Amino acid sequence: MSDTRSPRSEFGAFLKARRAELTPAQVGLADDGTVRRVPGLRRDEVARLATMSTDYYTRIEQGRVRASATVLASLVKALRLDDAQRAYLYELAGRAPTARRRRPAQRVRPSVQRMLDALGHLPAMVLGRYNDILAWNAAAAALYQDFALLKPAERNYTRLIFLDPTMRSLFTDWEDAGRISAATLRMETAATPDDPRLATLVGELSVRSPEFRQWWNGRIVSDTTSGPKRYRHALVGPLTLDCDTWTSPGDPDITFMVLTAEPGSPQDHALRILSSWHTAPAPTPTSDPSHD
Hints:
By secondary structure, this protein is of the alpha+beta class. It has 2 domains: 7-92, 434 Repressor (Amino-terminal Domain); 110-291, Beta-Lactamase (2-Layer Sandwich), CATH 3.30.450.180. It contains 13 helices and 5 strands. Strands 2-1-5-4-3 form a 5-stranded antiparallel beta sheet. A hairpin with a 2-residue loop joins strand 4 and strand 5. Helix 2 (43-49) crosses helix 3 (54-61), helix 8 packs across helix 10 and helix 11 (196-208) crosses helix 12. It starts with 6 loop residues before the first helix and ends in a 15-residue tail after the last helix. Residues 40-86 form the HTH cro/C1-type domain. One of its GO terms (molecular function) is DNA binding. This is Helix-turn-helix domain-containing protein. It holds the Pfam family MLTR_LBD.
């Protein structure tokens, strides 16, 4: 269940998943009226769109040949891939820089924690590899939950969305939040398919969450960095907040996430009330949960 296949086999599976999502009409092909045994485009239709022989495309999908940069560009166009899907495809094909196999534990400097705390009533956190929660401020604890009460291995944003009842009930549109979280996690598998930490996390979520298993097997990918998040908080009611994320210039595997509202708005007022009710002390900067 942990999806430990090689990048080459995953490359083929990703192509299959993408062509299954398209219809002939969507890509400008006439429906020949024959009964389709599987949903989506057939291999010969993808080959026609990508201007290659069906036999060659079949060998690519089966992992028997390695796609060139030119072929990859043709497949991106034929399958209508978005930027995130294109990046994932190129990563699987070995056309993008690969990550180091052994990477140092991620650590959050005290100065980063001070920066989070300085944001006051605005919820903010630092996410590491695979959405591990490395640091947060009191406002984030007030909105979500006190992460300090969790074991380090449990402090994972994706894991909490799928397995924690409190987190699940917090999101107004939980399915949307779940899909995005699963999709961003999937993006990381291209660079580190054999990472034990990733295999453990995906395995647990696949076993315990049928929704995660469905979306993971659908191979959706995303690199969403901003947008609204809608909550239904037990203390302050409905909240719609703007979410923005930034990648650390010193470590591309570290992401800063901040939630804001228009100053003086009811949403901003609710955040101030929520923050004032939360009296938990600021957390101690932590490290990568897989090394604790």
